[in-house]
Write a structure and sequence with these properties.
- The complex is a heterotrimer of chains A (333), B (94) and C (86).
- Chain A is mainly α and 333 residues long.
- Chain A is built from twelve helices and no strands.
- In chain A, 73% of the residues lie in helices and 0% in strands.
- In chain A, helix 7 packs parallel to helix 11 (283-310) and helix 10 (250-273) runs antiparallel to helix 11 (283-310).
- Chain A is globular.
- The termini of chain A are far apart.
- Chain B has 94 residues and is mainly alpha-helical.
- Chain B has one domain (2-93).
- Chain B has three helices and no strands.
- Chain C is mostly helical.
- Chain C has helices at residues 2-25, 29-53, 58-68, 70-78.
- In chain C, helix 1 (2-25) runs antiparallel to helix 2 and helix 2 runs antiparallel to helix 4.
- Classes of the chains: A mainly alpha (333), B mainly alpha (94), C mainly alpha (86).
- Chains A and C meet through helix 1, helix 2, helix 3, helix 8 and helix 9 of A and helix 1, helix 2, helix 3 and helix 4 of C.
Chain lengths: 333, 94, 86
């Protein structure tokens, strides 16, 4: 397949991405901006697919199409309670004072300088270094990694440190979310049509998450994509108005939140005690250890993303049950 | 023979995609646009997926394509309903 | 067959642009949401065509994920948040 045949397609794809990004940033209406951003995410997922990066495309599809849109729409709604559409805030028509103009130009110049530096670095990297050494190093050692998908091999074996630290960043983020206290209010029941969809969608999403986790060993997929899919199942449940969205209570939830980092560290330290380097898996065990770590990471990632959507600590089951009973009584009157 | 059938299905799917998009652009209000959109979702993707399934001649791939079509079918009907209901509610509130 | 798939990829791109026009024109948020829905379906179609064209079967999984999550945005868009009880 000659790639020049897709030149027109590529050009138009690029144009639509830049156009959507610009439109999303340029609009002053938050809700419009969020919808444009969702369209941007959809086109971006196609672009990653076109670039033959299905791992990234999967993550973008799950996060961009499912989670970030829902999260941002909820955030917009929280900013303007009551009415669904408020614009023309008086304080947004700010006066163009001198200091503000200078600041704007300063920020513009800094952004331009940053973009220029990045472009120069990219050009430098592409022109100077022979860029096939890294792929060759990976494919040479793939046999010893325990998996046959090179992306998973890099993420969970060769550069496992990076993934461990990424999970630590997620843990820090979820601690921040927890510190916000109780959750924001849930949703009103969405009606029988959406409920009917969700009844089969949630099991299929859970199945898909398991599939992505398992397939990650030899084909595109893995813990991040699976975790995002699992979180999407929870988001869908919350949107139907249910208060139970698959998150366990208190202590178990905290264990799940920390499971990714915890299992990763436990594996690393155990290997250290056995006289191997930190996270230097023995080749015979590598496949099983990677699957173990990825399963824990998937649960942590799903809990983190879902808690970000919920926006705080979920209420305990007892409180929920009381609220549900209250609601039932209200509807009966 | 199979190639021909698959080509015809793909072209038909493309036709419905374009018809749906033109309808989305040209029709006068939200409810009529909803009607145009579901053509692209249901028929466009359905025919395209059927054509590609014939082309792949692979059972698992075909089943996946079927699942994708069914998912989009359900999602499109549901979201069309949700958006129409919200538009209606906002109209009556005004 | 390759020519036909190239044609469909470009045709789908045309469809995407028509949808984008509706996203930009509006006028109501519901219209924009509908057009985003179309862009999602076009994206699914594009990924399916690309998976054959580029011989990358994993793109079908990406399309599957997009298809499964297609209703989430619309539900989040129309969902009404409850008033706080406390």
């Amino acid at each position: 397949m000659n790639t020049t045949n897709l030149l027109v397609f590529d050009g138009l794809l690029l144009f639509s991405i830049v156009g959507l990004a610009w439109a999303s940033l340029a609009t002053t209406d938050e809700r419009r901006s969020v919808i444009l951003f969702m369209a941007f995410g959809l086109v971006l997922a196609v672009a990653w697919g076109r670039l033959l990066a299905p791992d990234v495309a999967l993550a973008e599809a799950a996060i961009g199409a499912g989670l970030s849109g829902a999260l941002l729409l909820a955030a917009v709604r929280k900013q303007s309670p009551g009415s669904s559409h408020t614009h023309a805030n008086p304080d947004r028509n700010y006066s163009e004072s001198g200091a503000k103009v200078v600041l704007q130009w300063l920020v513009t110049l800094l952004c331009a300088a940053l973009a220029g530096t990045l472009a120069w670095a990219l050009l430098h990297a592409l022109s100077s270094a022979p860029h096939d050494t890294l792929p060759r190093a990976i494919s040479d050692n793939l046999v010893a990694s325990g998996v046959s998908n090179p992306v998973t091999a890099v993420l969970l074996n060769f550069r496992a440190y990076d993934t461990l630290l990424e999970l630590a960043v997620l843990l820090t983020a979820v601690l921040g979310i927890f510190s916000l206290g109780q959750t924001t209010p849930g949703y009103q029941p969405a009606g029988p049509v959406f409920d009917g969809l969700v009844r089969w969608l949630v099991p299929v999403l859970i199945l898909t998450a398991g599939y992505l986790l398992w397939v990650g060993a030899h084909a595109p997929g893995g813990a991040f994509q699976a975790g995002a899919t699992l979180a999407a199942a929870g988001v869908v449940l919350r949107l139907t108005g249910r208060s139970r969205i698959g998150l366990p209570d208190g202590f178990v939830l905290r264990i799940i939140m920390a499971a990714g980092v915890g299992v990763f560290l436990l594996v690393g330290l155990t290997l250290l005690l056995l006289g191997r380097p930190f996270l230097g898996y023995p080749p015979a065990w590598a496949g099983a250890l990677i699957l173990l770590i990825e399963t824990a990471a998937m649960l942590s990632i799903a809990a983190t993303l879902l808690l970000a959507f919920v926006g705080g600590q979920p209420q305990s089951t007892a409180v929920n049950a009381a609220a549900n009973r209250q609601r039932e009584e209200n509807s009966r009157c | 023979m199979i190639n021909l059938a698959s080509s015809i299905l793909i072209l038909a799917g493309l036709f419905f995609y374009l018809a749906g998009s033109i309808g989305l652009l040209r029709l006068p209000d939200l409810y009529t646009r909803l009607h145009a959109l579901t053509k692209a979702d249901n028929l466009g993707l359905g025919l395209l997926a059927a054509g590609l399934a014939l082309h792949s001649q692979h059972l698992l791939t075909s089943l996946k394509l079927l699942l994708i079509w069914l998912a989009v079918l359900a999602a499109s009907a549901t979201s069309a309903h949700l958006i129409a209901r919200q538009a209606r509610r906002q109209e009556t509130r005004r | 067959m390759t020519e036909l798939l190239l044609l469909s990829a470009t045709g789908l791109m045309l469809s995407l642009f028509l949808g984008l026009l509706r996203v930009l024109l509006g006028p109501s948020a519901g219209d924009r949401m509908l057009a985003t829905q179309l862009i999602g379906t076009v994206g699914v179609g594009m990924l399916l065509v690309l998976s054959v064209l580029l011989d990358e079967p994993a793109l079908i999984d990406v399309a599957l994920l997009l298809a499964l999550l297609a209703a989430v945005a619309a539900a989040a868009f129309t969902g009404q948040q409850e008033a706080r009880h406390d």
